[in-house]
Amino acid sequence: MNNNMSLKFDAIAENESFARSVVAAFCVSCDPTVEKINDIKTAVSEAVTNCIIHGYENMANGQILIEAELSDDLLKVTISDNGKGIPDVKEALTDFYTTSKESDERSGLGFTIMKSFMDSLDVQSELGGGTTVTMTKRLK
Amino acid sequence: MNNNMSLKFDAIAENESFARSVVAAFCVSCDPTVEKINDIKTAVSEAVTNCIIHGYENMANGQILIEAELSDDLLKVTISDNGKGIPDVKEALTDFYTTSKESDERSGLGFTIMKSFMDSLDVQSELGGGTTVTMTKRLK
Amino acid sequence: MLISAKTVNSTIYIKLRGDLDHYKASDLKNQLNKYADMPKIKRMVLDMKGMDFMDSAGVGLIMGLYKKLKNKNKQLYFFSPSPQIDKVLRVSGLYSIIPLIEQEVK
Amino acid sequence: MLISAKTVNSTIYIKLRGDLDHYKASDLKNQLNKYADMPKIKRMVLDMKGMDFMDSAGVGLIMGLYKKLKNKNKQLYFFSPSPQIDKVLRVSGLYSIIPLIEQEVK
Ligand SMILES: Nc1ncnc2c1ncn2[C@@H]1O[C@H](COP(=O)(O)OP(=O)(O)O)[C@@H](O)[C@H]1O
Ligand SMILES: Nc1ncnc2c1ncn2[C@@H]1O[C@H](COP(=O)(O)OP(=O)(O)O)[C@@H](O)[C@H]1O
Predict the structure, then answer these.
(1) Looking at this predicted complex, what is its ipTM?
(2) Average pLDDT of every residue of chain B
């Protein structure tokens, strides 16, 4: 089964659960296991939260774009913002690395979770231009 | 609460349930009653099905666009295709009117249901250009 | 659209489940037609208790089924539609030709 | 993020419900901090049975809670995480400082 969707929505924290449930609902047609659906929800939640708090620094006027593609039971999902971008992507991908203040209680594990819950993770970023996270997962 | 989203997806029948659950999930932040959520799901399902079977005549290469806006607990949702369009919108809105063959068992009640399940319905269409259905519903 | 059927005397009780939209309708139509053709059957009851959702594709399917049954002098009934489905059935006017029955069959 | 709490001797059992993401975290943090500050409490158990989802925002929140409790010589425990949450806790390494307990408290 081949299928495509793209979803654009306001970068507000209320939409974190909306975004992950849309991607999960999109995958349902491939009849994945509950575990795979939960892995995808978790990874999408991390990427979307990062756009909101890091990309747009909690300013409410940004938009997030999710593009998803199913082809032969392989999910490819990209999550992008037009926010401030990441100065050093390699550093950002390090376990426990975070630029948030301690009081915000970010764990620095967002990318770690995306990596371990999905089959592949790619991060493209441009300072001042935005960040695009691409992840794939085989559903069957 | 103000919120915006737009969703584009392949015009295939498998996506009918996906589309209505996305719009329902989008409304959840306003905490509407189950009845209102079901009204919205029903109306969205009718409009999306129409794009697939009438707008694109079941050809798999079309796309459907859903735009939704929540402002002060009012939902505005537009559903559009770039399909063949409706020659006479007034006629199409008539109860039981359908251009489908009898064997397809369309009831001609899609627009009737959209009208009675939502607060307002507007249909814009251009022959060869496509159809846009706009509906509103007060959630609180 | 899972389905299960049970015959009591000459009445067939059909339990529907899940969502009934245009995507699901054609499969279900074929299944229901088989039951409608069974010679011993005089009445068909659509038990909708397990159904989560139905739109006008369901109305079209049920109209077709009603006509098929009527041609053979068989009668169709609804049982236990959810509020969402009840509203679709009401708006579509189906209740005026297909009655709702009250009692459950175990 | 509904929450309910129950104290047995000097252990407080906190039942969490629903989803714990960045959006829900700040509310929950305030509630949990109140319990952590209660002088009579020596141990806190997070009963996750009713939780549907947690991401790394939950890990950050739990780390903060752990540190706060540790400063007061109090210990934190997990009870009954779902497979999804268990995986997040494993990947994050939280189990090495916060043990999982087995028995349920009625
Ligand atoms: N979309 C983004 N835009 C800008 N910076 C980002 C984005 N995503 C991640 N980052 C940067 O990468 C760092 C690591 O991200 P992550 O592993 O998810 O941890 P955390 O979100 O807990 O800080 C963040 O602290 C931030 O500096
Ligand atoms: N998106 C669309 N594109 C083209 N024609 C449409 C579209 N939506 C509706 N129509 C036309 O309007 C008629 C009535 O629609 P409706 O009330 O939903 O009934 P039904 O779908 O059962 O035919 C359809 O039969 C079709 O001719």
Answers:
(1) 0.94
(2) 97
Instruction: Give the closest-approach CA distance of B73 to chain A in angstroms.
Output: 15
CA gap B40, B19 in Å, rounded: 11
CATH class, domain B2-138, is alpha beta
Q: What is the pTM of this model?
A: 0.95
As a whole number of angstroms, the distance between CA C86 and CA B88 comes to 31
- The rounded distance, in Å, linking the Cα atoms of B93 and B100 is 14
Question: What tokens appear for D27 in the block?
Answer: 């509310």
State both tokens at D64. Answer: 């903060």
Count H helices and E strands in chain C, helices first.
3, 5
CATH number of this structure's domain C2-101, picked from the four choices 3.30.750.24, 3.40.50.150, 3.20.20.60, 3.40.50.1220: 3.30.750.24
Residues 6+ apart with CB under 8 A from C67: none
CB-based contact D23 A106, cutoff 8 Å: no
CB distance B4–A10 less than 8 Å? yes
Residue C103, pLDDT score: 77
> What integer is the mean pLDDT of A98-117?
95
Q: Which residues of A touch B (CB under 8 A)?
A: 1-10, 12, 14-15, 18, 21-22, 25-26, 28-29
Mean pLDDT of B6-33: 97
Catalytic site positions of A: 46, 50, 106
The mean pLDDT value of chain C amounts to 95
Rounded CA separation A32/D72 (Å): 45
Which of B15, B45, B58, B118 is the best substitution to test chain C (most C C-beta atoms within 10 A)? B45
Q: Does residue C105 have a pLDDT over 90?
A: no
Determine whether the interchain pair A16/D21 forms a contact, defined as Cβ–Cβ distance below 8 Å: yes
Give A20 to chain D, closest Cα distance, Å: 11
Nearest to B42 by CA among B137, B123, B131, B140: B137
Query: What is the per-residue pLDDT across D3-60, written as a single tens digit (0 to 9) for each?
Result: 899 999 999 999 999 999 999 998 999 999 999 999 999 999 999 999 999 999 999 9
What's the per-residue H, E or C state across A16-72? Answer: HHHHHHHHHHHHHHHCCCHHHHHHHHHHHHHHHHHHHHHHCCCCCCCEEEEEEEEEC
Q: How far is CA B100 from CA B93, B103, B129, B132, in A?
A: 14, 8, 20, 20
pLDDT for residue A49 is more than 90: yes
Query: What SS3 class is residue D85?
Result: helix
Q: Percentages helix, strand, coil for chain B, rounded to the nearest 5?
A: 40, 30, 35
CA of residue C61 to ligand 1 center, whole Å: 52
Task: Give me the mean pLDDT over the B75-81 stretch.
Answer: 98
